[in-house]
Amino acid sequence: MTKTVNDFYTRQEARLLREFDRLVKEIRQPISDQYGIERAAEMVQSAREEYRRLLPELPYVGGEQPFTQFVIASGWFLALYRVMQAQGIGIHEIGKTTFQLSRTYLEHVPGFVRRFLGHMTFSSRYLRKLQRRAQESQTHPYPRGYVYSYIPGDGVNFDYGVDYHQCATWTLFQEQGATQLIPYLCACDYLYSEMLSWGLIRTTTLGEGGDRCDFRFKRGRPTRVKSSVIDFSAMKPADKH
């Protein structure tokens, strides 16, 4: 795939590295518990350097949130994947570590912030903006970005839905030869749904061979997300408070 050169992320390198350092501060403990303090410190430092190197490669998606943050987070996990893979760690262990680190990161977000974000996901203002952006995405303004459709709710089974036909994270990981990690990142949507009360149902994803990612949201409903790599039934309920 031909990539468009864009310095959006490199112009923000100092800020993005500070953000990476804050992330590491929150997730350092589970990494240290699993790999030991010394090895974890080496992995984190190497991942930071790899992340800095990857910044020019991240897809530009217009600079607006939340999609830009999704791309930035994809860079975090791609960097960690590269470092762990270089140390001979298998994909299932890397994937499980990625999933656990995502959970730890979300649990460090204050409960009132999570409740606010969850509420805003169903607000009329957010949904109007989502519909407009969905229409714009279908003109392919960003070749490596997201292309998606807004699905109006049926009043019973879901409040609204989104079908993703192209995903910037999937594109990035294809380019970087890291598609085996994608199913574990897709599984992290379970965590977001649980902690933000999305009531997400999703049956297929691009990352696991589907023709789209079919998100259906109904506020407060139990999460039902299929995954070929993570057993959600074995997990304790997420802390939403």
Structural features, described:
The chain is an alpha+beta fold and 241 residues long. It has one domain. It is 51% helix and 9% strand. The chain is built from 9 helices and 5 strands; from the N terminus they run H-H-H-H-H-H-E-E-H-H-H-E-E-E. A hairpin with a 7-residue loop joins strand 1 (147-152) and strand 2 (160-166). Helix 1 runs antiparallel to helix 2 (37-54), helix 2 crosses helix 3 and helix 3 (67-86) packs parallel to helix 7 (168-175).
Helices, strands, pairings?
Blueprint: H1 13-35, H2 37-54, H3 67-86, H4 91-107, H5 111-120, H6 124-137, E1 147-152, E2 160-166, H7 168-175, H8 182-187, H9 189-196, E3 201-202, E4 213-217, E5 224-225
Parallel strand pairs: 3-5
Antiparallel strand pairs: 1-2, 2-4, 3-4
Helix pairs in contact: 1-2, 1-4, 2-3, 3-4, 3-7
Runs in which pLDDT lies below 50 for 5 or more consecutive residues are none
**Count of helices?**
9
Can you tell me the number of structural domains? 1
Annotation, overall tally of beta strands = 5
User: Taking all residues together, what is the mean pLDDT?
Assistant: 92
The backbone outline, from C-alpha atoms, is globular
**Element string (H = helix, E = strand):** HHHHHHEEHHHEEE
Largest sheet: 5 strands, mixed
Q: How large is the share of residues in beta strands?
A: 5-15%
The structure class reads: alpha+beta
- N-to-C span: 43 Å
Radius of gyration: 18 Å
Q: Strand order, main sheet: write it out.
A: 1-2-4-3-5
Query: What is the share of helical residues?
Result: 40-55%
